[in-house]
Amino acid sequence: MLTPEQIQEVLTSTEADRIERTRSTKDTDKFREAICSFSNDMHFRTYDVTPCLGSTLDDLDLDVFVSSYRRKAIDPEVIKENGRELVLQLAALHFYNLKRDCPTNAGYIVFGKDVLGRFPGSYVQYVKFAGETLGSDVVESRVFNGNLLELMWTVSRFIASSFTEKPVFDSGLRERIIWDYPPEAMRELLVNAVLHRDYQSNSPVRFYFYPDRIEIMNTGGLYGEVSKENFPHVTDYRNPVLAEVLMVMKYANRYGRGISKAQALLAENGNRPAEFEIESNYIKVTVFKHPER
Questions:
Q1: Mean pLDDT, to the nearest integer, of 40-58?
Q2: How many domains are contained in the chain?
Q3: pTM: predicted TM-score of the whole model, two decimal places
Q4: HSE (CB half, 13 Å, CA atoms) of 79?
């Protein structure tokens, strides 16, 4: 969906290649060609492959692309043999639109130097509450932001250090470890929220800790072929390019089983199953603390 600013740019531009012009006011074939060309030009399959109008190659941290992502996404021998310049490599991976000569939204979200400047909701808001309601005192709060790779790295480190384990003994006096929340399950659920969120929204991903539970909420309801009836067994991607990035960087799997994996890890640890609240404009998952913790 175009923003009002982008529409204004289209309507006032005299040079933009997305504008089809005809001097004739009577030649219907010319009108038809112009309308069809404009329609095809303006349609992009998903929001993340849409050109990020007004941005330039200089807005991207190309060192991050080369050193962190490209070496995992493309075999170095292929890069060497192909010899493409950097902008063509970005375009081949859907991070740059050659026709518009600008990054795509995905390119900006993944490698942008100022992601919040373009996508104000592109962060994770962590809040820890003293009580069991939103009105409770706030014990701690943090904001995780940056480009997508920075965001996922800092969030993953935070999750790895945020939960506690406790040894318990079963009936055979064998020791086993239980977590208040299994870290890997929480990582899967948070990655899912970051990936499937609506990046056109100004609302962040919310990561809220209460004494008895954790709530994770992202904007954007179910997408594409996914419905309440088949969720989470059917997968569709609002942001397929971002999905590929998280898969390449090993934050997400390629089989759309992150939620099922999280539920299995919760069950293995002795937690109740996570509960999902699904609305047209958001999804919230609630994870309950282990009863012995």
A1: 85
A2: 2
A3: 0.83
A4: 16
